[in-house]
Amino acid sequence: MARVLIIDDDDVARMMLLRALTRGGHEATGARDGVEGVALFRESPADLVITDIFMPNQEGLATIMELRRSAPSLKIIAISGGGARASLDVLSVAEALGAQKTLRKPFTPSEVMDAVRSVLGE
């Protein structure tokens, strides 16, 4: 299956994603923010990145732009619960920056797996 990198500062959400992807047969690893996520990606590239938008240190939109510059064909799913800037439709911005799919929190493990299968063409 695929190597998936999950970037989310919310420990509970990150662990749920790691568990769902591992159960789905994927190799999954996690990072707490965009800085850590980009470093992990450079060390060990993934087939798919799932990134939150609102995070400390480096938020998701900057992370998507940085990953897209170094890996133009990388598959990306952006996730967000809205955060403090909920009036801005950040998931639409994430799609404009290159995310193939977006999910609004809260979501279920099956919704995540459906998005992963769709993006990976499974």
Our count of helices gives: 5
Order of helices and strands: EHEHEHEHEH
Question: Which secondary-structure class do the elements indicate?
Answer: alpha/beta
CATH homologous superfamily? Response regulator
Overall body shape: globular
Strand content: 15-25%
Q: Report Rg.
A: 13 Å
| CATH hierarchy, class | Alpha Beta
Number of domains: 1
Give the number of DSSP strands. Answer: 5
Organism: Azospirillum doebereinerae
Domain Response regulatory: 3-120
Modified residues (4-aspartylphosphate): 52
Keywords: Phosphoprotein
Provide a compact summary of the structure.
This protein has about 120 residues and is of the alpha/beta class. It has helices spanning about 10-25, 35-45, 60-70, 90-95, 110-120, and strands spanning about 5, 25-30, 50, 75-80, 100-105.
Polypeptide structure, described:
The protein is globular, with a radius of gyration of 13 Å. It has a single domain, classed as 3-Layer(aba) Sandwich (Rossmann fold). Strand 4, helix 4 and strand 5 form a beta-alpha-beta unit. 33% of the residues are buried. It has 122 residues and is an alpha/beta fold. A five-stranded parallel beta sheet has the order 2-1-3-4-5, with helices on both faces. The protein contains five helices and five strands; from the N terminus they run E-H-E-H-E-H-E-H-E-H.
